Amino acid sequence: MRLDGRRQSGNVDDRRGRGAGIGGKIAGGGIVGVIVACVIAWISGGNPLDVLVQNGGSMLTGTETRQAYVPTQEEEELAVFSKRILAGTEDVWTEIFRQNGLKYVPPKLVLFTGSVQSACGGATSSSGPFYCSADNSVYIDLSFFRDMRKNLGADGDFAYAYVIAHEVGHHVQNQLGTLEEAHDRMSQLPQSEANKISVRLELQADYYAGVWAYHDNKMFQSLEPGDIEEALDAASKIGDDYLQKRAQGYTVPDSFNHGTSAQRERWLRKGLSTGDPSKGDTFTPSYSSL
Questions:
Q1: Strand, helix or coil at 152?
Q2: How far does the chain reach from its first CA to its final CA, in angstroms?
Q3: Cα 23 from Cα 54, distance rounded (Å)
Q4: N or C: which terminus of the chain has fewer CB atoms within 10 Å of its end residue's CB?
């Protein structure tokens, strides 16, 4: 991506080098959920059960403590990159909302290391990036990008931008009321049916990530040859079917909550090609046609 000279968002809460107690669950959906976290733990030689315990909120909430922390040069570069991508989402979604007679209130980006406490509860870096609708914030441990490259083989600046743009997509859903409505419906359904609504949310966030990229490129000529392929490759490698096959050799479709590789690629590509937020309705089509 061409980002030289681009502004950095100041809407960032840098909590790197601090620790936080764990308690409760994250909300708003993330580009990786518990399934992805477990896979990464498994591949890395860790214990997937530890991830389940952490995300189930069974640990007691503790007190945040400061630790001596010196980021690496690579991490600082990723921090600057993330701030520039966030600024791009602010510019794009502010204009899209304005054109539709709405006001866009951007999310805050929270950078953390290890663990963090959000208004939705506690989480660790093993959970991957996530959006918390209770405090309108996107949370990310920048080491996730290293894990994407090392454990999933998904790499490239636009692949990383897609991660951030997807989480911002959940914020767009929250601003439009889609997220709350979907969560209300999910709370009234059995798990297998609630998972299907979760898939619809995630695919729409993928679509919105594509919409952002379309307009960011139109505003700043940011995309370079190979960028789109990077993002599509990342989308395919975080599909529920891909991750489950890699972890256990088979899939359990009823447990899918982010969408298959084909679905995630399809909706991201659609957003990239149309740039039209109104064409991202993932809730009306039949589930089998997503």
A1: helix
A2: 29
A3: 8
A4: C
Q: Which two tokens stand for residue 70?
A: 């010196």
Q: Quick check: is 6 in a domain?
A: no
CB 89 within 8 A of CB 212: yes
| pLDDT digits 0-9 by tens, 187-233 | 999 999 999 999 999 999 999 999 999 999 999 999 999 999 999 99
CA distance 95 to 175: 14
3: in domain = no
* CA 156 distance to own-chain centroid: 16
67 forms bridges with which residues in the sheet?
A: none
CA 227/CA 233 separation, integer angstroms: 10
Which residues 6+ apart lie within 8 Å of 225 measured at CB? none
Distance CA 164, CA 40 (A): 19
CB-based contacts of 139: which residues, under 8 Å, 6+ apart? Answer: 26, 110, 112, 116, 118, 123, 129, 130, 131, 132
Per-residue pLDDT reduced to its tens digit, 268-284: 999 999 999 999 999 99
| Nearest residue to 16 (alpha-carbon basis) of 122, 127, 125 | 125
Decide: 273 and 206 in contact? Cβ < 8 Å: no
Instruction: Judge if pTM exceeds 0.70.
Output: yes
Exposed, middle or buried by CB within 10 Å (0-12, 13-18, 19+), for 21? Answer: middle
271 in a domain, yes or no? yes
Q: How many domains does the chain have?
A: 1
Structural domain of residue 212, as residue ranges? Answer: 12-289
- Strand partners of residue 138: 109, 131
Classify residue 173 by its DSSP letter. Answer: H
Joined tokens for residue 162: 């897609």
Dihedral angle computed from the Cα positions of residues 226, 12, 206 and 5, in that order, rounded to the nearest 10 degrees: -30
For 10, the token pair is: 């100041």
Distance CA 138, CA 140 (A): 7
Position 63, amino acid: T
